[in-house]
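Tokens in:
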């Protein structure tokens, strides 16, 4: 177990020693540890060694400049200059919030951002600022992991969709889902832990259902399946188009290898469009009504999207963040390489 501060300090020190700007190191590290605190370990500190590897290969521009390509009162197209995705994504979200405050609504599209981490972060930031937000993302045309409905070869990325909805005097509702059955990072964690992948999530290179993570990674490689069969495929295809075609990053295609994130973020200033009081009353009424349903056997409570993460956060802030031994070994190897001393793991 580690505290959030210990993991943040370690990650920050590693990124800075590897050549990142101190401010960027802090932003990325805090974002990764926040994912761990929320229980999304697939987007947490397990990513540190991979990010450093990308830095070593010059796949991350450690001196990137956030650039507005074009804009008007209610939209902007940004270019992340292949900088850290968590840095560029937060700047883009802040820009969108500023525009929505003036125009009532805003759309920000972005390209050339490295891995942006957990997309629920951005819609949550917007929701805490009084915005309803919807985000579509792809992997810049590369990073294909998902077979189309009816196919067995990788053609789409996880292409996540996130929605943030503000709530009065409470944490926001945050929907953050991949359009495939399982996040690739979770499959990677299962392979590290030697655990089986849940059924109906991945197929091998011949299209056969499998629970062995090694069948996904190959060689030859398998694929993730779309969430909800044809429905997830449709959502993934739409997300790919809205994120890639509008930003200028492009959609999934065979002729590109540079993996990053592009996105389309829509923000709506609730106060201007509806009035916060009326909106809050509707949201509260719906949540209360949904939670009043009779419970299924062995279920003690109905939880709203975002509530499980908040409860895990409270637990992990009090008890510490568990880090799998395989993940910790990778972190320590990267830290040692750059002369950083990792903390001692508590029992």
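Residues out:
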């Amino acid at each position: 177990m580690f505290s959030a501060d210990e993991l943040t300090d370690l990650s920050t020190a590693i990124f800075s020693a590897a050549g990142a700007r101190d401010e960027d190191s802090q932003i990325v590290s805090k974002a990764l540890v926040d994912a761990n605190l929320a229980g999304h370990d697939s987007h947490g500190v397990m990513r540190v060694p991979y990010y450093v590897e990308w830095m070593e290969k010059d796949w991350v521009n450690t001196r990137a400049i956030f650039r507005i390509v074009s804009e008007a009162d209610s939209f902007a197209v940004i270019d992340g200059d292949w900088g850290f995705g968590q840095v560029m994504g937060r700047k883009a979200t802040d820009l969108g919030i500023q525009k929505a405050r003036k125009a009532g609504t805003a759309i920000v599209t972005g390209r050339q951002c490295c891995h942006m981490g957990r997309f629920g972060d951005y819609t949550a930031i917007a929701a805490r600022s009084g915005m309803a937000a919807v985000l579509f993302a792809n992997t810049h045309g590369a990073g294909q992991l998902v077979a189309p409905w009816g196919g067995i070869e990788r053609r789409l990325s996880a292409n996540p969709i996130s929605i943030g909805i503000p709530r009065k005097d409470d944490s926001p509702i945050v929907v953050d889902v991949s359009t495939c059955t399982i996040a690739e990072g979770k499959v990677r964690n299962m392979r590290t832990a030697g655990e089986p992948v849940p059924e109906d999530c991945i197929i091998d290179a011949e299209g056969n259902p499998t629970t062995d993570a090694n069948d996904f990674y190959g060689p030859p490689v398998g694929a993730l399946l779309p969430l909800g069969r044809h429905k997830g495929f449709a959502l993934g295809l739409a997300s790919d188009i809205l994120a890639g075609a509008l930003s200028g990053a492009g959609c999934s295609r065979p002729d590109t290898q540079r993996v990053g994130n592009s996105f389309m973020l829509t923000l709506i200033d609730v106060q201007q469009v509806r009035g916060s009081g009326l909106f809050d009353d509707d949201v509260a009424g719906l949540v209360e009504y949904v939670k009043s349903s009779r419970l299924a056997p062995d279920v003690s409570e109905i939880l709203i999207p975002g509530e499980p993460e908040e409860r895990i956060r409270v637990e992990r802030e009090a008890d510490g963040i568990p880090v799998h031994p395989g993940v910790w070994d990778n972190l320590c190897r990267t830290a040692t390489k750059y002369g950083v001393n990792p903390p001692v793991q508590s029992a």
